[in-house]
Amino acid sequence: MDSVRLMASSHAIPMSERWSSPSTRIVKVNFDASLICLHHLLFSGMIIRDNEGEVLVAGCFSHSHVLDPFAAEALACHKALALAHDLSFKRIIVEEDSLWVIKKVETFSKDRSLIGMLIKDIKRKLKGHYSLLPIS
C-alpha cells in the first residue's frame, strides 16, 4: 500500500535532534517555507531522505504573489508532494510544521478559504497516489 504520513514538528528542537528515521522502504520529506510578507515572496526548501538518513534529493523554490503564511505552508506542502510523486517515491512521510495545514488536509469538509483549491489538490494528490496515515 502506498502511503503518506503528515506529522507536525517543533522549531524549538535542533534539526539534528529532531529528525527521526522512517521505517525501511519509506522516505521522509522535510520542508519549510519562509514568506516575505511585504513583497509576497515565498522561499521554500525541501529534503528527501531514506531510512538511514541518506539524502536522496534536496531542492528549493521561490514563488511570487503569496498572500499569507498559511498559503505559503500549503504551497510548500503541495510542492513537496509533487516532487516526491515526480520522483516515483511511493511510501513517504511528509513532516510538516504547520498544524493548520495538516488539519485542513485531514478534514472531510470542503475548504472555502482562499487556498481551498490548493488544499483540495493536496488531498487529491494524497488520495490519487497515497493513503493518508494518522499522525503518530
From TrEMBL:
Domain RNase H type-1 as annotated: residue spans: 31-125
Lineage top rank: taxon: Eukaryota
InterPro entries recorded: RNase_H-like_dom_plant (IPR044730), RNase_H-like_EbsB-rel (IPR052929), RNaseH-like_sf (IPR012337), RNaseH_domain (IPR002156), RNaseH_sf (IPR036397)
Protein name (record): RNase H type-1 domain-containing protein
